[in-house]
Amino acid sequence: AQKITQTQPGMFVQEKEAVTLDCTYDTSDPSYGLFWYKQPSSGEMIFLIYQGSYDQQNATEGRYSLNFQKARKSANLVISASQLGDSAMYFCAMRERRFAGGTSYGKLTFGQGTILTVHP
Amino acid sequence: DTEVTQTPKHLVMGMTNKKSLKCEQHMGHRAMYWYKQKAKKPPELMFVYSYEKLSINESVPSRFSPECPNSSLLNLHLHALQPEDSALYLCASSQEGTGAIYGYTFGSGTRLTVV
Known about the structure:
The structure holds two protein chains of two kinds. By secondary structure, chain A is mainly β. Chain A contains no helices and twelve strands. In chain A, strands 2, 5, 6, 10, 11 and 12 form a six-stranded mixed sheet that branches. In chain A, strands 3-9-8-7 form a four-stranded antiparallel sheet, with no helix packed on it. Chain B is 0% helix and 56% strand. Chain B has strands spanning 4-7, 10-13, 18-25, 31-37, 44-50, 53-57, 64-70, 73-79, 87-94, 105-106, 110-114. In chain B, the strands form two sheets. In chain B, strands 2, 4, 5, 6, 9, 10 and 11 form a seven-stranded mixed sheet that branches.
C-alpha cells in the first residue's frame, strides 16, 4: 500500500499567486515526521519545511506553509507569492523511525512528486 | 559545516568498469543513506548505515557494494553495472539515537550513466 500520495502530477501557477500542493499519507505509527522537498532540474534535494506528528501548530518557513490536518492524514504545502524560481519537482515525504540490528534509523518514504511550473 | 558532499557530480562508465561514489558529511550524523532516483520518479532507498553498520539493504543487486569506513564517509562501489542502472544517486545523512524525529540532509547527487 502506498504510504505517501501526491495526486497532482503537474501544477501550473501564475507568478505572484499562491499554490497548494496536495499530499496524503498513511501510517499506524504515532510518531512520524512529514517533509517537503524541492528538486530543481540540477537534482539537488532541497529541504523546505517539516511537520512533526505531535506539533500542534502548522509549520511555516518564509513563503512556505504546511497545512497539516492530522485526522485527514493530509499535509499540503502552500507556496505564497510564487516566483519563477519555484518551478521544480516537489516531493512530500514521511519519515518513520525503524529499528534494525540494535540501532535506529529513519525510513523516509517519498510520494510520486508534483512538477510545479510558474508562468510569468 | 551543514553539508553532505558527493563526488563525482557526473560519472560515465562502461559495463565492465569498476568505479566508486563518495559521500562525506561532518555534521556528526550517525545514519547515512544511499538513494537511487530515476528521471521524474521519487528517490528509492538502497542502503542504510547506522553507527557505521549496514542496517538495511533494500534488496539491491550485488553489483552495488556500500562501504562506511568511518562515521563521516560513505562509499558506493560499482562493478559490472547495466545501462538500466543509469540514474541519479543521492546520499543523505541524519542524526539518530535521541528518540526524536530528525530530517535528512541530502547531497547534490551523482549522475551516473552506464554505457
